[in-house]
């Protein structure tokens, strides 16, 4: 039996970021990951990127990861939101909000490498990989975990189990936790294109009859495309030639960036909303996609998970959290901090995904008026921007770019 204060199951970006964030607390941490990490890949034209809000950038700064990411990130200084075929639009600008950027677009490759590099330096961390969680059970004031790791069976004991094992969380299923939500009947098609009149620092979200179409700025005039389409359109869009796909994309998006060209290989992912009803259990916490899977509209999914990381790290750095990381006082503090944000963000993204594919004429008129109203009213514009920048509500220290209070450890 190996004893730990916190065991994190899932060593992806969210689970890895939490392990990095907890390093200053002095807690004994184990990180369990089923898949061996890839070695550092070379940059590629079509690499996957993640849209980071300003709040997420500050969290990564507070953890000490941002300096390793910044050089290959592209800032988002302006956001242009429009409704295809209708007059509604909204524009957000960093200068009006007094910030250097509204957010960043960073390669997942670079973020993963920054996390792995940091984890390799942590004396209080044990990494078990590749390792599979076979079972876990609550036994008094601890959770016992049965693992299969590199051909042998292990048993761990921990005072807090953190499930960061993704949208199909095995821990959530084992606990029998229900989710609220639904499938959207939509897929997200991901690709990369180049624009001959690129607008560096500007992100675009264009609502179409089949769902939102986002173009996120990357380096070298590239854009990451997230095209939401109906499930019955997906196979056809994937089968199109590059020329036909670009022509259809150009027709949907318009010519704000001039000619779009050089589409990379396309991938499709089904979209759904799933909010875990009780993500905080006795000595167990679900974070990231294990707790909430969102529609990609407005790019809130990963950012919501990083806010989970910041809040959990903050409560575990407090005296009560260090004394008993899985104690009722600690978990109640985390629940109070995160419950509202998780629910509101899930409902807001769901509302946007539904309203902007509704063809009814009264809805079309209302959403056009709402978008124009936000664009014309500075107060409304700033409130919307702060919500999607992850700056609403009480902020953990990490969300302000500050390290945890650990001088008394």
TrEMBL record:
- Asked if Protease is a keyword of the record, the answer is no
Q: Name one GO molecular function term.
A: 2-octaprenyl-6-methoxyphenol hydroxylase activity
Which Gene3D superfamilies does the entry mention?
FAD/NAD(P)-binding domain
Pathway the protein contributes to: Cofactor biosynthesis; ubiquinone biosynthesis
Tell me the protein's name. 2-octaprenyl-6-methoxyphenol hydroxylase /2-octaprenyl-3-methyl-6-methoxy-1,4-benzoquinol hydroxylase
Q: Which cofactors must be present for this protein to function?
A: FAD
Task: Give the species.
Answer: Marichromatium gracile
One of its Pfam families is FAD_binding_3
FAD-binding domain location: 3-330
| Keywords carried by this UniProt record | FAD, Flavoprotein, Monooxygenase, Oxidoreductase
- Protein origin, superkingdom: Bacteria
Q: Which InterPro entries match?
A: FAD-bd, FAD/NAD-bd_sf, Ubi_Hdrlase_CS, UbiH/COQ6, UbiH/COQ6_monooxygenase
């Amino acid at each position: 039996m190996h004893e730990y204060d916190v065991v994190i199951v899932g060593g992806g970006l969210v689970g890895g970021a939490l392990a990095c964030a907890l390093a200053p607390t002095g807690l004994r941490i184990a990180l369990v990951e089923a898949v061996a990490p890839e070695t550092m890949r070379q940059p590629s034209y079509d690499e996957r990127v993640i849209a980071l809000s300003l709040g997420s950038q500050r969290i990564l700064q507070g953890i000490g990861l941002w300096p390793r990411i910044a050089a290959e990130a592209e800032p988002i200084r302006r956001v242009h939101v429009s409704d295809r075929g209708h007059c509604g639009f909204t524009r957000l600008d960093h200068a009006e909000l007094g910030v250097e950027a509204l957010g960043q677009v960073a390669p997942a490759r670079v973020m993963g490498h920054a996390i792995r590099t940091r984890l390799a330096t942590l004396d209080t961390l044990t990494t078990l990989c590749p390792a599979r969680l076979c079972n876990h059970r609550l036994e008094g004031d601890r959770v016992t975990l049965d693992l299969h790791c590199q051909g042998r069976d292990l048993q761990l004991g921990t005072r807090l189990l953190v499930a960061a094992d993704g949208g199909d969380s095995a821990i959530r299923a084992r606990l029998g936790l229900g989710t609220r939500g639904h499938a959207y009947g939509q897929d997200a098609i991901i690709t990369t294109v180049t624009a001959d009149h690129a607008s560096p620092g500007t992100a675009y979200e264009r609502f179409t009859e089949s769902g939102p179409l986002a173009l996120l700025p990357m380096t070298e005039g590239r854009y990451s495309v997230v095209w939401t389409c109906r499930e019955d359109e997906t196979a056809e869009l994937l089968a199109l030639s590059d020329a036909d796909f670009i022509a259809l994309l150009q027709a949907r998006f318009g010519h704000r960036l001039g000619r779009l060209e050089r589409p990379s290989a396309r991938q499709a992912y089904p979209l759904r909303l799933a909010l875990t009803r009780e993500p905080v259990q006795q000595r167990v916490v679900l974070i990231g996609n294990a707790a909430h899977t969102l529609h990609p509209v407005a790019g809130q999914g990963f950012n919501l998970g990083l806010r989970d990381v910041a809040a959990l790290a903050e409560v575990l750095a407090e005296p009560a959290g260090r004394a008993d990381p899985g104690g009722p006082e600690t978990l109640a503090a985390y629940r109070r901090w995160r419950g509202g944000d998780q629910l509101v963000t899930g409902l807001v993204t769901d509302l946007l995904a539904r309203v902007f594919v509704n063809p009814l004429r009264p809805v079309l008129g209302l959403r056009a008026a709402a978008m124009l109203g936000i664009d014309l009213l500075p107060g409304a514009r700033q409130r919307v921007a702060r919500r999607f920048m992850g700056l609403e509500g009480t902020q953990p220290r990490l969300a302000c770019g500050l390290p945890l209070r650990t001088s008394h450890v």
